[in-house]
Amino acid sequence: MSRFIEVPARMLPSETLDALLEAFVTRQGYDTTDTGAGMRGWVAELKQQLERDELIIAHDLELEMTEVMTLAQWRSFGRDLGDDEEEGDLV
Questions:
Q1: What is the pLDDT at residue 75?
Q2: Sign of CA dihedral 11, 77, 29, 31
Q3: Tens digits of per-residue pLDDT, 49-91?
Q4: Which residues pair with 65 in a beta bridge?
Q5: CA distance 51 to 14
Q6: Which residues lie closer than 8 Å to 60 by C-beta, 6 or more apart?
Q7: Burial code of 46-68, b = ≥16 C-beta within 10 A, e = fewer?
Q8: What pLDDT sits at residue 8?
């Protein structure tokens, strides 16, 4: 059984996606006071990044955790999207 799966953003309820993106903003230390849109502005920007495939949503089946990651963060775990797809570790 593969440990990680990629979760398409379109498969998540809007509230769930927003909560994941807000947690990502907080974890990354983004300044939510620097724009008039605040957290909503960052969430909208991150949704655009998801559409451009600059971010992924990965679910760890072993730890039962779902995280938003940049591709650089994903690769820092020693993982590559192409390699995982070939090995069947990322759907």
A1: 76
A2: negative
A3: 999 999 999 988 889 999 898 888 777 765 555 544 444 444 4
A4: 60
A5: 15
A6: 3, 4, 66, 67
A7: beeebeeeebbbbeeeeeeebbb
A8: 94
